Input
Amino acid sequence: MNLFDKDLIITLILLFSTNALGYMYSYLIASKKIGVNMQIQPNSNRELKYLRKHTPLFIINVFTLMFFVFIGFLFFKDFIIKPQADFYFTQISFQLFIILIFDDTFFYFLHRLMHENKYIYSKVHKIHHRANSPIPIDYIYVHPLEWMSGFIGPFIGILCMGGVSLYTFWMYLFIRNFHEIAIHSGLKTSNLFSLIPFYGTNEHHDVHHAKREGNYSSTFTVWDYILKTKI
Output
């Protein structure tokens, strides 16, 4: 594969830009320029010094993520990406739905394991829970092993379909990144998202950070309802 492949460059730009926007959003929240009257936890300690403290690991993880995506495209693009001309919008939508289902299922059980296994929690997941009242960049303020493990679910979903459209892959990255940024914002969810069945709201995940248990789902809350871990 060409190191200057257009698809690879667009993918890296997408990853960088969404995380850059997430950082800008975090700055606006931490500096009290937006969201003061929308906070889920009104007495949170989210300030600029908090943002500065979490910035180094955020930067490390973003560029490590981009490096692994770069390597993945070099060696696995032909296994996971199919020519767009073979797909229509309905097929792309179906592919996106399947990826999100696999992703959400794997995330729920991995996340729950990291809480219920005290060793894994203390060595890996505890880093993420240094934030009782998170800001957007805290979605990737995690141990590198944790976010790398998070790719297993969607990767399995993609392989089960024999590869997906590149547009599907981009849409997945866009939706997943912005949802993670939103649920770690500490701000109340827009009423617009209440129209989506079982949508994982900001409040749902904020309670998880505050209590450090329950509400293990991310994008959808189906597994929390089924296994009675919703609080």
The CA atoms of residues 90 and 96 lie 10 Å apart.
